[in-house]
Amino acid sequence: MAPHKYVIGIDFGTESGRIVVVRVRDGEEMGAAVVPYPDGVLDENLPGGGKLEPDSALQNPRDYYLVLEKGVPRALKEAGIKADEVIAVGSDFTSCTVFATARDGTPLCLIPEYRREPLAWPILWKHHAAQPEADRITEIGRERHEEFIRIYGDKYSSEWFFAKILQVLNDNPELYEAADRFIEGTDWIVWQLTGAEKRNNSTAGYKAMWVKGVGFPSRDFFRAVHPRLENVIQEKVGTDFYPLGTRAGGLTAHWAGAMGLREGIPVSMGVADGHVAIPATTVTKPGSLSMVMGTSLVQMLMGSERRIVKGICGVVEDGIVPGFWGYEAGQYAGGDMFAWFFDHVVPASLKNQARKLNLPFATLLEKRAGSLRPGESGLVALDWWNGNRSVLVDADLTGLLLGATLATPPEAIFRALIEAAAFGTRQIIEAFEAQGLHTKDVVACGGLPARNKLLMQIFADVMGREIRVAKHPQTCSALGAAIHAAAAAGRQAGGYESIPEAAEHMAHLQSETYRPRPENRKVYNRLFKEFQTLHDYFGRAGNDVMKRLKALKREILAA
Amino acid sequence: MAPHKYVIGIDFGTESGRIVVVRVRDGEEMGAAVVPYPDGVLDENLPGGGKLEPDSALQNPRDYYLVLEKGVPRALKEAGIKADEVIAVGSDFTSCTVFATARDGTPLCLIPEYRREPLAWPILWKHHAAQPEADRITEIGRERHEEFIRIYGDKYSSEWFFAKILQVLNDNPELYEAADRFIEGTDWIVWQLTGAEKRNNSTAGYKAMWVKGVGFPSRDFFRAVHPRLENVIQEKVGTDFYPLGTRAGGLTAHWAGAMGLREGIPVSMGVADGHVAIPATTVTKPGSLSMVMGTSLVQMLMGSERRIVKGICGVVEDGIVPGFWGYEAGQYAGGDMFAWFFDHVVPASLKNQARKLNLPFATLLEKRAGSLRPGESGLVALDWWNGNRSVLVDADLTGLLLGATLATPPEAIFRALIEAAAFGTRQIIEAFEAQGLHTKDVVACGGLPARNKLLMQIFADVMGREIRVAKHPQTCSALGAAIHAAAAAGRQAGGYESIPEAAEHMAHLQSETYRPRPENRKVYNRLFKEFQTLHDYFGRAGNDVMKRLKALKREILAA
Q: Which residue among A545, A555, A556 sits closest to B534, beta carbon to beta carbon?
């Protein structure tokens, strides 16, 4: 019997990196390690000093190196695997995280003369200081009827590639000139591991306006946005993009040594952390909806052709699995909204009761919320605690709770927030359905399905669909990176020929599923109508009170 | 120098009775006592057993006797006052609290054969089980264009006199027959003290459809409501009503002995606890708005003529001070809504911080809410946690909170609830203004002005008016009862000729006042517009979602 082969998946998240060592044959996780980033998210000061402007979110690239140097050997050791049993390495990265680098890929922040410049540091996906730049890009894109604006649901986000590059140019033109390359984090880490700059076509499509067979918008467009941006593609980005699940290059001697692996083994193409999780939920074909349910909620669906769905985040050919169109939509607030509720609302009395019962308070809360029947609380909420991503694409919308009485207990509010999140997802599915994009199955991964059964049951009831859950819902991205690695290795090296083939063997679901209950479904259909009426009234110009209150708040804070 | 004269005021509240011994010359409080009702509010079981239906709220009349027997001697002792220095006794009572009695005034519940019948016990103001009866009365009143329906803002409340009597008739026709009299609590206690049934014209006007110079609706009306109700007035109520601040009779030998007072001293006419407080805030003439700010909010304004103001609770000639029209409006949720917030929302973290700072958590919350500027929270709320009393008159409306984000702290929600209560009051003032009823001054009493300076400042800012506060804001009803007593005594006995004259000497204000701040006022004018838009959208049939959710809740609970 041939010895087992293994792949390594490395998931670069927002606060830490996670490594898994996975058996190629069946996806079994043999070892794992998590390395928190010592500098975490830089949102107030730079390492070594230097105050940051509000809404900044940067990182220290040394933290990523640490994940490789400490985490991979630790995971290998836990797995008891030797270097020559590992046939490939895959990674994924938060997106859109943008690096300004020298010609050899060195982040500018690691070059002494630039280390005091904030934007010389990796600009993390949740850096929101480029809103004016995003507005400018949206405006010019709309004026010129650019293709990307349609694809992105009529709006370019402040989180995305060119908004951040334009901020560098606006804030610090010299830094812009000094940057030989601007590159997504996921492509940057691959560049480090292989020594060669090769960029993936998925984040290019979702965040950087690139369209397969068409390329980028014209020089005219970039010049219209800013005269000095005219040649940004030719000078600082490049025009070649490669499909997911393919070999980006071979592991360098340096990193092979630092991680305890063999030089030259395949490194798979870069990919965003959300998209990489999808094959790990067993979804590789049209008709299945994948829900990544963590601090925010992301829904991904594959289709065999392109449709324009208003209000989704994007649709990209080969964007999730080569051969299909990947549709992405999302809700800005998921676990974040529940965390807000836990921190700012759950009363001392409930925490005391939980202590007496020797239960975590979240368990008591879930139990009590679960004993309420749909409709019993009299509450309905809009899940816009962090704005609306899909289908309204409006960060200035805010949360709403309606129906409170003197008898409303905290668990009723908790349940209403869960229901609101589920209604938001249903709204997205219905937008897909309206364009003929049907959801047959639903598979979930992320922190919420791992923790909250009540939430999953409510989602099933509200969506009217059975929901299955990935076997290890919290580590789907790392497993997905391992699946990409196995596909990049190819069959001859002991891997697989494609992402779907790899996923077929390596991805598994839990046996327990969540089936909608008909009696709950009926009540939720009625409540969803109420949600939709409020959604359209506050979200579609019936009453712009939320935007006016936000504007007033900014005015007051600026005064 | 003549010896001082004193009067006693007895305030029968919801949970306890409060007695004050007051110097007639200047209103100085010489002694006081509070006697909690041992049986409190009966809302689940009768004393001695017997389950109550939902929404019931009854009381035990022996608790009222206890207030007289224990409380008055204790207050006299504290004051160091002898019986012959007390020239009169006044009292006020919650309203509309309805007693079914025998011909001699004995509550039916004290007669053994009726003690197991719930409605043989005093039916407390907040007993809400007579809603179907109230709906029936409203329907017939509207059909017949009855005068009282106009006066009561187009709706008869489930809390009021005939709704409760009709419930007795519907639920227990034999008990209805057994009741020789139906009487307001405030008139019943006066009957006990004097031995004679004499009813006041104020609660008759506000709760029992009686109109000065007109009387009650016709027999036809009552027959249309229920055939057996046709002769209710003639048989069980009576048609004679007497003005506030006059002598109802002399104290009986029995009660003089039990309380340690002189037989025969004047007992003033019955009066509701809200109305009696007004003279104690120094308000006895048109143009001043009195706000009683406790668990709920009541606004009272006097006018020199009758205007129809849509959505107020009522307008009654001589209803507060003889000679003027008393307009009453209100908000169902005041302190109750903040109590809900304290119990169900304030998080453990804030309570822990308060503990570390050695502060009551409400103080820390108020401090933090006070450090927010108007508009800074981005929140707006509708204060309908207990329905809307004025000007929408709709108990099925519910609370709304709009504008929450992941950064919304609990103090911002607290402030938004205070602002919502203030906007609700402003809405009422504007309804008065629209009918030419102008508010020149505002005076507040009740538990909230005693406790929460931030709230008072926000009310001043939102209303754009200076607010003065009664000297002892929490005991205005008891002082008011003493003022009524002094007026009932008359000048010859050492009292005064009228309520205004008594109030002029006996009622005082705090020197500190709350003045609107122009910069806050400007922002609140903008926020009030948002409040009004939401108020009308949810309250005036723009979107009846609140009513539908309440109906759904009832449906679910009944299933």
A: A545
Between B339, B526, B546, which is nearest A402 by CB?
Answer: B546
Token output for A79: 């797995």
In this prediction, residues B219-224 reach a mean pLDDT of 98
Identity of the residue in B351, B403, B406 whose CB atom sits nearest the CB atom of A386: B406
Which residues are CB-contacts of A539 (< 8 A; sequence separation ≥ 6)?
A382, A384, A388, A392, A394, A397
Residues of A in contact with B375 (CB under 8 A): 549, 552-553, 555-556
User: How many beta carbons lie within 10 A of that of residue B177, not counting itself?
Assistant: 13
Which chain A residues are within 8 Å of B345, Cβ to Cβ? 345, 347, 410
| pLDDT digits 0-9 by tens, A455-513 | 999 999 999 999 999 999 999 999 999 999 999 999 999 999 999 999 999 999 999 99
Residues in chain A with CB shorter than 8 Å from the CB of B537 are 537, 543
Closest Cα of chain A to B413: distance in Å?
A: 10
A526 vs B contacts (CB less than 8 Å): 552
Q: Identify which of A171, A7, A156 has the alpha carbon closest to the alpha carbon of residue A87.
A: A7
> Does the beta-carbon distance from A404 to B398 stay under 8 Å?
yes
Three-class secondary structure assignment of B328-339: EEEECCCHHHHH
Q: What are the CA-CA distances from residue B58 to residues B93, B119, B193, B295, B510 (Å)?
A: 14, 8, 22, 19, 37
Q: Whose CA is closest to B394, among B502, B514, B286, B311?
A: B311
Residue B1 has pLDDT above 60, yes or no: no
**Contacts of B141 by beta carbon, 8 Å cutoff, 6+ apart:** B148, B149, B156, B217, B221
CA-nearest residue to B526 within chain A is A552
Residue A248: pLDDT above 50? Answer: yes
Q: What letter would DSSP give residue A509?
A: B
Nearest alpha carbon to residue B218 among B145, B112, B131? B145
pLDDT at A3 over 80: no
Give residue A2's pLDDT band: very low, low, confident or very high (50, 70, 90). Answer: low
DSSP percent split of chain B into helix, strand, coil, nearest 5: 45, 20, 35
Name the residue among B399, B406, B410 with its Cβ closest to that of A404: B399
Rounded to the nearest angstrom, the gap between the alpha carbon of residue B160 and the centroid of all alpha carbons in its chain is 12
- The arithmetic mean of pLDDT across residues A164-169, rounded, is 98
Distance CA B278, CA A491 (A): 90
pLDDT of residue A1: 47
